[in-house]
Amino acid sequence: MKQVSYNEYAAKVMEGLPQGAFLTTAHAGKINSMTIGWGSLGVMWRKPVFLVMVRPSRFTFELIEKSNEFTVSVPLHDMKQALSLCGTKSGREMDKLATAGLKAVPGQTIATPVIAGCGLHYECKVIYKQAMLPDALEKELTQSCYPAGDHHTLYYGEITATYLDE
């Protein structure tokens, strides 16, 4: 693994995120990875932060609430099939990593693993979380993104390590 600055690949992250990245979390021997297409990389409270959003209905939500940490693995090459599977199936019902042919590799600074072979990895420790306040969101976004009322919880993760696969 090659250590890099959290912001060295920021443009590539923001360009690739809409195509999907793997948000992984783990607790008590259970590992789950889901596909995310929304998020943000920046600085909050003088710390490098990766902001991710998870709906309370997701299995990932249960694990992240218990572990208070997560990783984001950003594919730097085509991983569409694995991203599709991790974005459409539930980790409650299957081992998504095994089914998608993905391998979890231990994190360097946290207990949650990263997805081997993706390219770029962020390890994050939750420093703040907030359930969305539906009334605070623009009505058009509520209608287009939350027609079922299933608003996200926002997780601000302090980036504890950033590195590339070698």
Q: What is the end-to-end distance?
A: 5 Å
C-alpha geometry: globular
Instruction: Report the order of strands and helices.
Output: EHEEEEHEHHEEEHE
Query: Quick one: how many beta strands?
Result: 10
Report the average pLDDT across residues.
95
CATH topology: Pnp Oxidase, Chain A
Low-confidence stretches: none
Instruction: Give the count of structural domains.
Output: 1
Q: Determine and state the CATH class.
A: Mainly Beta
The CATH homologous superfamily corresponds to Electron Transport, Fmn-binding Protein, Chain A
Number of helices: 5
Using only C-alpha atoms, the radius of gyration works out to 15 Å
Q: What is the CATH-assigned architecture?
A: Roll
Give the proportion of residues in helices: 10-25%
| Percent of sequence in beta strands | 35-45%
Largest sheet: 8 strands, antiparallel
Which structural class do you get from the secondary structure elements? alpha+beta
Describe what you observe in this structure.
With about 170 residues, the chain is α+β, with helices and mostly antiparallel strands. Helices cover about 20% and strands about 40% of the residues. The protein has a single domain, classed as Roll (Pnp Oxidase, Chain A). It has five helices and ten strands; from the N terminus they run E-H-E-E-E-E-H-E-H-H-E-E-E-H-E. Strands 1, 2, 3, 4, 5, 6, 9 and 10 form an eight-stranded antiparallel sheet that branches. Strands 7-8 form a two-stranded antiparallel sheet. The model has no long low-confidence stretch (mean pLDDT about 95). One of its GO terms (molecular function) is oxidoreductase activity, acting on the CH-NH group of donors, NAD or NADP as acceptor. This is Flavin reductase like domain-containing protein.
